[in-house]
Task: structure prediction
Amino acid sequence: MEIMYILGIETSCDETSIAIVDNNKNILSHKILSQIEEHTPFGGVVPEIAARAHINYLPNLIKEALSEAQIDISKIDGIAVTSGPGLIGGLLVGLMTAKGIAASLNKPLIAVNHLEGHALTIRLTDKIEFPYLLLLVSGGHCQILIVHGVGSYTKLGSTIDDAVGEAYDKVAKMLQLGYPGGPAVEKAALKGNKHAYVFPKSMVGRDNCDFSFSGLKTAVKRTLDKIDNLNEQIIVDLCASFQFTVGEILKDRISNAIKLVKQNNIIIENLVIAGGVAANKYIISCLKEITDSNNLTIKSPPIKLCTDNGAMIAWVGVERMSLGFTNDLVTEPKATWPLM
Ligand code: KG4
Ligand code: ZN
Result:
């Protein structure tokens, strides 16, 4: 097999990330520059600040990635770039940079759907064949998909309001635990009683694979509003009870998805959890209960590759280019781009 080097660029949200990945699954270099410090004072990502930060960081990050990989830019075989979904300013910065490099080197451009990045990362880090079931849970996305192959997906369900990570971030914000909220809520929950408060398990028992987290978030807010003397114990109990409810919802939804896959006579061996929330050990343990009872294996990329990163984009570049799927230089960024 001839070696292929792909440069991956990710700028769809608040991480500026660059990676060089080859078709032997080696990550030759990987740079992730989080903009958390820039956005923290605002309690969330400010699109204009994010776009400007990408402009500042990107050129140096590309140079550093090439030098770390000890690869001359002329040896790069293709440029993979997140072209959506995401914040349009950041997408524009990444895509225009990628087009410039592709045009100057006369090498192919691969316009990558960010969600396909999360969906296929597991094939970079593990040996796993299609098809598999995917639970994609991040700050912006919450969906269950069957991954049949590169560019071939069936969506079984998605959130009708907030994404899971978004619910974690909002609960963290109301409890003043900081941003991003997921890791802070998970840490606090470890010290709390998960049965201290009872919150609504939206969608549980319904015959579909959709999610809803807005009601849960509001229930936490209502409970909090009624508390006069908020203290450390109440905060950790609220976090634990919130997280317990999220776990119960995810278990129910994934059970339905597995049933649906079986009803359609699709043979799967793996449930893959991707996106930032896959870093949550409690959630993974909840889902493992379901996979164990269905003879499935649960797989998840390492945490660094679960949250937004350039390696997952470069890897989609490898997968797509190996199949001859490349894009021309008139490709436009898409703020919304369903993975179907
Ligand atoms: O995939 P990602 O980096 O960006 C998006 O595409 O959204 O995911 C970030 C999201 C944030 O909402 C963050 O709070 C959540 O993932 N997250 C977690 C944890 N680590 C990150 N949520 C729950 N528990 C965690 N340990
Ligand atoms: Zn993401």
